[in-house]
User: Fold this.
Amino acid sequence: MSKLVEKRTVDMEIIGDWVEPNTRVLDLGCGPGVLLDYLVQTKKVSGVGVDLDLARITACVRRGLAAYQGDMTSFMRAFPDKHFDRVICSRTLHELGDPTAVIGEALRVGRALTVGFVNHGFWKNRVDMLIRGRKLRNPVYTTEWFESRPANPVTIADFEHFCAAQGIRIARRAHLAGNWHAPCRALPNLFAGYALYDLAR
Amino acid sequence: MNDVIDPLPATRPAGETPRHLAPGEVGLVAPRDFVHPKPFSFRSGQTLPAFTLRYETYGTLNTTRDNAVLICHALSGDHHAAGWHSPTDKKPGWWNNLIGPGKAVDTRRFFVVCANVLGGCQGSTGPSSLNPETGRAYGIQFPFVTIGDMVRAQKLLLDHLGVAELHTVIGGSMGGMLALRFATDFPHFTRRVLAMATTGRESAQAIAFNEVGRQAIMQDPAWNRGDYAKDAGPRVGLAIARMMAHITYVSDASMDRKFGRRKKDTANGDAYTFDVQFEVEGYLRHQGQSFINRFDANSYLYITRALDQFDLAQSHGSLEKAFAPVEADALIVGFTSDWLFPPEQNRQLALALLRAGKRASYAELSTDLGHDSFLLESEELYSLVRSFLERDQPYVFDYAI
Assistant:
């Protein structure tokens, strides 16, 4: 079992704890549907995933999940307010083209929004940047700058600033240490590797 | 229709498996006729004393009678979806690449049924059938047929075949409309619906193309208000209708790749003539000519009218209301280069199903072949279809790692 897969399951367990059983869930950037499948199996949610990639949609269909291939913002615009009990945006935050629009739409179509992201401000990242002076390369940030999609590396401080500026209420937060396992209790922007937020308007 | 199975041609090289006997193919097939001996009422209020549907089946119905997959054909399609009628056939059935043992629609697992639609002209009752009251072809005395009528007739066939519930109904283009109507009209009966390159209602542009086709037929003097002998009729008009419609099934890019501006050898370099010069002209003329030998002009009028009239939102108040009774899981597939029933119209179907609280997926294939892309030989499409039909049964997750 690779370290990254272990990390993924921790992420899933926390989101799973926050998701109410038998609710309607939208997973933005659902990938091959691992999280959604987990939520369907453990929480009996009725879920739909959105992703841009045909192979990932096919993987979702193979799992028996509902999945929509296309742009997540235009997808959400097709739904009335509060259509979903919860929208999940796990590990896609830094790749969003227009984060304000996506989060705004997610808070409109969902009663709650769960966001999970890697904390770019984690101390090892800072040290790495300070010493190497180059784009981060590690098991989390796997690509060279010229091989990756445009990304907005976001820190916990950045995200909390965004929520405050937008008037978004933070209902719950979970900061995990560098191993993405133990809770991080102090100075999360420096010591947390991964952050999860439960948001509402 | 070729019911006779010819002996193998003697000239076949020894040791080479003929394609119709090759593993992974359904092989030689023969169409059959289902006769519904009772009166059938159309949506229009008109009735037929009885009707026939010509159909084919591949694979075997299981003991629980729930492994049936219904294939619904498009405007000019027919019941011959897979296999060969005779070893000398030039081509197999129209969706042979998708259907067969081990293929995406696996005939070792599913009982596959495909029927020519009511109102068609490939063996099912339609305008070219004899009206028992007059002893002549119905012509335009034939009842106006709707997509819903076609679906009800095919449901009677499935009942006759002993199908308890449809595992999946699959269709592209008009076939997708039939598939959706199966899900809305027979919700308990239809477990999965897979609709490709289709729409909940045609746009003005699609209706316009159909109207030009109908006008080409009806303005041909040989149409004679639908009253013509079996081998006569508006052959010119029907050929023109087909030539034009064919353009809407492909794309600028695919035509350019296939023909470009290449000239026919027979053109003699003489630009000052209206004979065929470009290869694309010759191709379209060939499409038109081969169509008039297999299709009835009145059927073309009736079926294009059924396509135009199809409007799920209007008939139920909204798409969401139309989909409210659906119990099937749905997969809608759009194709990027389809400009007849574009991806957006397919997306709208999936979104409306989701808004109605149904389990629906939307997938989009990047192709440049236009509307006919759903017939594409594509591993991506096969994988998608197979995933939807054979997807994993729910299982207990073990995340104790």
